[in-house]
Every structure is written in C-alpha cells, then in structure tokens.
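Supplementary Note 2. Why include the ligand at all?

Several targets in our set were suspected to adopt different conformations when bound, so apo predictions alone were not considered sufficient. For every target with a known small-molecule partner we therefore ran a joint prediction. The input for zinc ion is given below.
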Amino acid sequence: MSLTVKPIAILDDNYAWFLRDDATGTTAVVDAAVVGPIADFVKAEGGRLDWLIITHHHGDHIDGIPELAAQTGAKVTGNANDSARLPKLDLAVKPGDRFSLGQSEAVVIDTPGHTRGHISWHFPTGDAVMCGDTLFAAGCGRLLEGTAEEMFHSLARLAALPAATRVCCGHEYTLSNIRYALSVEPENAALKSFETLAKSLRAEGKPTLPTTIGTEKAINPFLHARDVAHFAELRKGKDNFR
Ligand SMILES: [Zn+2]
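The joint prediction is reproduced in token form.
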C-alpha cells in the first residue's frame, strides 16, 4: 500500500491521523487538535511533518494547528469555503480539487451536514478517506449545522468509494454506535460480528479504526437509509438513544 495511515488517539475520544506517502516520505497529520501528543507521535515516526490537513472547523479538530505549524514549518490546508473559521491556510482547496501528498493524490469531497464547511479527503491510490465527523464506524456525525438532506448525500458520496477504502474518522464512538445500530438492525450478522471484534479491540485498548467502506456498507444503518426522510428518522433516533 502506498499510503501509510495511523490513528493518533488524543483528547477523550478523538483521532488525528498520521499519513505518510511511502514513495517520497512526505507526511501529514489530519485534524491536529493538540500539540504535545501529535508532536511526540511525529517525532517517533522520524520527525518529518509536511502538511496539516483539516476536515472541519471544530476545536477538537484544529486547535493544535497554529502551534504545530509554527514548530515544524508544516503547511496547512483546508476548505476555502470555510476559511474564516479555520487556522490560516497555506493552501485553500475546494470540493473537487486534487491535493498531492508526495505521489499520493487526494480528491476533496464535499461532505456538509455535521458542519456547513465539512470536507473529506479521499486518497484513491492510498485506499483511504479522511472523513472527520461525517461517517463513523457504524454511525455518522450529528447534524450541527447542516440538514438531513445534506448529510444523506454526503454519506452517499462516501459510500460510493471503493469497498477497500480505509475509513479514517475523527472519533472512537464505535461501541456506542453499535448499540444503536443493533437496536435498528438486530438481525444484522455482519454488525454482530463487528461488535465482537470492536469489543475485543477496545478491551485491549486498541482503536476500532480504520474500518473500510465495504464494512460500513454492511454494518452502518445510516448507509442503509432508503431516502432522506428515512435517514432523518434514523439520525433522530440516535440523538434520542438512551
Ligand atoms: Zn466536529
């Protein structure tokens, strides 16, 4: 695989993601919300940090960026359409743009719903998507700014990616998402076996991520919504779950 992808557990349940283009050694961290743990992680990976990549403006995704950029000289990239709420961007991108991390190219996908300016970064040759708080393992982001219709279409864009695509999202919400998912699809065998896997990973203190688009299409009830109204009902059910 030409793109190395590693989760960095930070804050209570967030993940930043460390990326390395294996051909050139070019590196990035996605959603660098803190400084110390990310700087330590990068140091353990050889100390090189070329890019700081942003999915959306929430503090638990961007708060470490200005200081990390100052410390390392890494350049910052995020959504031009939301730049007023982001740290200073060296490269402002728009949905549909392509971004080069060494020889690994990312396509910027518009994924509003959780926030208005949320974008995802798909690396087709790297088999990975950085999807922030849009698609989670067995769940999806809350609708804080966008509409159910926007999120429905954002999730459809992600679900259309190749099945082997690694899903690199912003939170370890997996066990809680599975509880809700099982209440919606109690007979889903793939979901039940994913629950067994996720529980054993968490018992060992390991991340349940990344999953893959193929796994999510099998286990994630939000990707099984028939239409916008059905999606809205599922999302409301999760908001009120327990
Ligand atoms: Zn968020």
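The chain has one domain: 3-239. The chain is about 30% helix and 25% strand. Comparable summaries for the other entries are listed in the accompanying table.
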